[in-house]
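Collaborator request, handled under Task 6.
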Amino acid sequence: MMRAGYSLLPGNFRVVVCMLAIFLAATAALADSATTGASLDKVILRLKWLHQFQFAGYYAAIEKGYYREAGLELEIVEDNPEEESVKTVVSGRAHFGIGGAELLLHRSRGEPVVVLAAIYQHSPLAFLVPATSDITNVHQLAGRRVMLEKHSAELLAYLRAEGLKMEDLEILPHTYGVNELIAGKADAISAYLSDEPFNFVEHNLEYRVFTPQSSGIDFYGDVLFTSEEQVVKYPERVAAFVKATKKGWQYAMDHPQEIVDLIFNRYSQRHSRAHLLFEAEKSKALIGRDVVEIGYMNPGRWRHIAEKYNELGMLPADVSLEGFIYSPESDNDLFWRRVVQVAEIVIAFLLLLFVIRMIRSHFNLEELYRKNRVANHRLKKSRKRISMLLGSMPGMAYKYEIGNRWTLRYASRGCRKLTGYKPEDLINNFRTDYASLIVPEDLARIRPAFLNAIETGKPYNLTYRIIDAAGQQKWVWDQGSPSGNAKTGDKTRRLEGFITDITESKNLEVENQKIIADLQQALGEIKVLRGIIPICSSCKKIRDDKGLWNQVEQYLKEHTDSEFSHGICPECAAKIYPRKNL
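Structure tokens returned to the collaborator:
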């Protein structure tokens, strides 16, 4: 019956039906492959050095299956002294690599690298000397034998900041050990704070280090990077790799002993377990996960690094960071991407529905309707979840432009509770802008801070007062940062952040200050008689601070707030008015 019905269809129409069937089958196969992970995407990571705890997060992510869950199969390749990791990644022989702040220098030279995550928030590179050395500061490295490793841009910047040049040092090939240093064949070496110092500790020897941070050069340490080609052509691969890597580092930091055993048993016994544990302990402070999440990168800090390189003549002043810092797909972008995907599915279903209506007797429509309902239900849930999230935030998220006016481009639903205005009343309103809500004297105070944040690219934290729609004055805390510069004639700048109502806490603060002031005033008005008071043993007069003798009544009037009432005691009455014997 099915075949008979199919044969009655026109030839061209049968082709359309076949093409739709092939399309749906391919889509289903692709979805199945993505969800089951049957075919893993093989990627290569090029290390910055040899196997050790410095790369613990990658080993942990492999061991715990985080990469496999992300649909990836990772191959780790150790460092090759014959070829820089940047060249390996840009050429496509590796998909990902590990570098440092010098990646910014490579980018300025036209090498299309993109930084993905800063694993080490602080560079572990330093100059290492024995404690017995007569070198007590970095300036004394001039004329000395120094073993300097590659990828040491921050150390070169450190030397320049201290007024030294490479020519001032006798540079020796680095053997990546401390034997020459201990034997006196070298005066100093470049070293990782988490690695080489262990050799001194192991032999109960004291050591001394000189770090770039002492000169204000605080660069990122190990940075995961890739090429622009990977980001553009394979965004999902890059996003999955970064997410799995961060998860692996989180596990490695929580279970250092387990990962040390993994490295020692599976990857390398070049370092002892004690050495690897030393490295794990020192890495904690360098990674800084108690301050920021693992892998966190701040564009403002990259700008600061670029400025430092420029000050030292290592980087042009006009270098652009556009495209250099990885920007993963935001939740908002992901949401709309899902909306588009759902829309595409709906369109495909509508087209298929048109075909099915023509051959209704040969297809079961129930399953298609069910899928459509599920897709719509998920879409509604996603929208509701995002709406509830923004609506439950105790304050107002915002985006606005600062130019001749402060034009609000976005405001969350918390805007109404904070200002009394609906978001749509203020967004793109060129007559009532956000600046008009700020108390004038506060606006004059905070405007320079906003402009300074725009010029420096740094975040800001400000408190000021606004007048809401009901005319009530509120104290708010505004924290945000510049979101980009628009190249317009009126120097328009964009800011984004979050504003919180702190009126209650501010009022409590003012009330407490008033109470303290009242207490201090009351205490100041209290006159206390204390210490030794000189009094005449005969007439009972009291000597004041000027040396004059005063009656008790006069003295107390001058030194207290007491008032006196006059009377006469029985003894005095008897003396003054003696009774006559009758």
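The cover message to the collaborator said: "Residues 331-358 form the longest helix (28 residues). Residues 436 and 493 are 18 Å apart (CA to CA). Please let us know whether this matches your experimental observations."
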